[in-house]
Amino acid sequence: MSMPFARLFLLLMAVMSVLPARSGDVPEKPLVIAHRGDSAHLPEHTLAAYARAIDAGADYIEPDLVATRDGVLVARHENEIGGTTDVAQRPAFAARKRRQVIDGEVFDGWFTEDFTLAELKTLRARERLPELRGTAHDGRYGIATLDEIIALVADHAARSGRTLGLIPELKHPSHFQRIGLPMEERLLDTLAAHAYTRAAPVVIQSFEQANLRALRARLGPSQRNIRLLQLLGPADAQPGDALAAGKPTRYADLMTAAGLQDIAGYAEIIGPWTRLLIPVAEDGTWEAPTALMADARTVGLQVWPYTFRPENHFLPAALREGDDPRTRSEAGSLAEIRTHLALGIGGFFTDDPALGRRAVDAR
Q1: In a domain, 189, yes or no
Q2: Engineering a disulfide at 207: which of 70, 231, 259, 346 sits with its beta carbon 3.0 to 4.6 angstroms away?
Q3: The domain spanning residue 254 has which CATH number?
Q4: H-helix or E-strand spanning residue 178
């Protein structure tokens, strides 16, 4: 397609205008983070998706973590698994479908905390976005545990000679704390149990604050390989722990000067939604960059935004290729990533790590 180079040039100039004078602690090459594995091509959070992401050049692998009834950490985007497994087609588990409220949202379905690991291992993964990515790989892969993911990463690192990072996200930590399945100690114990994750780079991320503060207090001198990342959702949304405590805190509060200074006291990195750095108007066009990047770097925080996806459905209007939301616009995705790289981000989450690698290596 014909890319709107004049518009991109003007946006890049706007990006450069909001950068602080000092460079901050930014890696020489921004890190490519495989968002749930190579989820643009294979069902997310499967060992196959993680392996493909590593082969595509990802620097970090991202598993979202939830707990089973017997306290094992497994990789799923949500603890509700009706949309990402074949559990709905399993008569033996039909009676376990239920409704519950998590972080203020009502969910109907099947939940990992109602299954043992052995039971979850009988299920098969399905594509979470079938309307965009099809169903060709449904049923081919199982649910992965954190232990299995670490073993996979360690094996690939040993065979390739590359240092591969792990960046787990703790999903709905207040919910799991409330039902007696807190994940923080389980995560630290699992990381400590593997020689690889006792030394390799690890970043623990969460949309909540309380568990990251607790982790900061818990981490000792022997765990200097572990850093913390505060995820930032849409400005008007609330962190789950604030909601559970009846506090009015919203992500907009975390992005003020005082909020960022507070985050810098317990985390090294923020992970904002990309639209918090460069907003997209209702008509799908880019607006001028916000001050978030400069404000974060002023207090010493790195910025690793999420998530870059190659389908038209997720891209700003100017970067789409045709009108079909399913169409992959590789040129558009590369342009979107490169525009954010110009901000000085230290890393980024992408569903297509091969495209992310191309964007970084072409700089």
Answers
A1: yes
A2: 231
A3: 3.20.20.190
A4: helix 173-178
Is 126 a domain residue?
A: no
Helix axes 146-160, 47-55, angle to 10 degrees: 20
Query: Cβ neighbours of residue 283 under 8 Å, at least 6 residues apart?
Result: 317
Instruction: Check: pTM over 0.85? Answer yes or no.
Output: yes
Please indicate, yes or no, if residue 78 is contained in any of the structural domains: no
Residue 62 phi, psi dihedral angles, 5° rounding: -115, 110
Q: Which domain holds residue 238?
A: 5-71+143-361
Q: Please state, in angstroms and as integers, the Cα–Cα distance from residue 191 to each residue in 36, 82, 158, 200, following that order.
A: 18, 28, 17, 10
Question: Per residue in 267-303, pLDDT tens?
Answer: 999 999 999 999 999 888 999 999 999 999 999 999 9
Residue 267 resides in a domain: yes
Q: How high does pLDDT run on average in the chain? A: 93
**What is the number of structural domains in the chain?**
1
